[in-house]
Amino acid sequence: MIKVLTYGTYDLLHQGHINLLRRAKELGDYLIVGVTADGFDQARGKINTQQSLMERIEAVKATGYVDEIIIEEYEGQKIDDIKRYNVDIFTVGSDWEGKFDYLKEYCNVVYLERTKGISSSDIRSNKRNINIGLVGDLTFLSKFEREGKSVNGVNIIGVFPIDPTDDVPKNLSGLDVVTNDYDLLLSKVDAVYLYFNPKLHYEYIKKALLTGKHVLCESPITISITELEELQKLAKDKNLILMEAIRTAYSTAYHRLVVLAKSGVIGDIVSIDARCTSLRDREQDEKDYYKAWTSFSYWGPNAMLPIFQLLGTEYKQKTIISRLQENNAHYDAFSSVDFIYPKAVGNIKVGKGVKTEGHLIISGTTGYIYVPAPWWKTDYFEIRREDSTQDKRYFYQLDGEGIPYELVSFAKAIQTGKDFSYISMEVTRSIVNLVEDFYKDIGIIKI
Ligand code: C2G
Fold this sequence. Notes:
By secondary structure, the protein is α/β, with parallel strands linked by helices. It is built from 15 helices and 20 strands. It is globular, with a radius of gyration of 25 Å.
């Protein structure tokens, strides 16, 4: 009996896949198909598969050509599978020509001609194809474009440098629409991404929503709850998406850490310590109207994220302590916030005028999670215990800083009208609440 083996994602199964499976089966007597697991697809850069693994398996089964289905989960598995299942022929489409010649050591390798003119990517991008315009600080937007352009079906087509004196970096100057006219940008896109001084967010978001455009906005969305509620209502009334952007929430390692911690691996969570600092020229910060984040508004949302996501937003008490810049009552060079919960505490330390270790430590009753600096863009964390032989390390592929996943969620939300955000409404509200207190100087201890 000749055993044939092939692999694939088989997202939105189409004629190309069906032809391949039919011809693969014709090569022998028994066809085994390895369907790629989501985690492995993500690791190899396929991040916006539309269907779940089960849906894809069902579709492959339904072709009727397949005798056995296995799941592909790790790099190098093909060699193991060929040996394990006594495979005679490995086959794959001609788009992989030459790539699997190393398997010839174990079995025959056949590249079957790929069906022209059809692909999952085409089907996906016909479905969505969302044109996005970037607005704000070009240094960051340049990075956003580099990471975000890999996302299938999302086209970053324009940029509006909010500060007219900014030089447009190379990768942005090549976009279709480079303009100092916000209205013009809005007229050319389906959605905007905003990254600039949060004090100015409100008017830009409102204008975008009023012109029927979806908005992805860097956190904090606004600096007042009233404004947040007004904008959320406006978005809802107009069937538009208004989504908060904190890329850490979308990075694989951070997301896994949150679900692990919630599942009780370190017992009850008793304390969370999150620190984020980045030294910056303070004078520049104060002058820079469009980029004038305070330490609190710049780092606060990111640092509060694990506290609100793991301990909830119902804290009993909070204390904000800010060390202010001399002669400037509004610029905090450093802030520390304590949150007191019924059975736990959270502390953040943030600063642009101070440097400290940027770690995240989540302490529980049976152990703690340690994420080394810079935890907000880590690919790695550890679970540590009293008995250090029980320590465990977790490594993940870092796909940029989470921007591609954030964009995929945004695009899915636009497409389906459903909420795909990794950040709950309560967390968004609580962040704005704190930022509002900060800007309005409510209950802040100044030093
Ligand atoms: N295919 C084809 N014609 C198309 C599209 C795809 O013949 N128009 C083939 C591919 O060459 C592959 C199979 O269908 O053999 C599944 O395609 P995908 O779902 O895109 O999976 P792919 O990423 O190519 O997976 O490591 C090898 C991979 O597992 C193959």
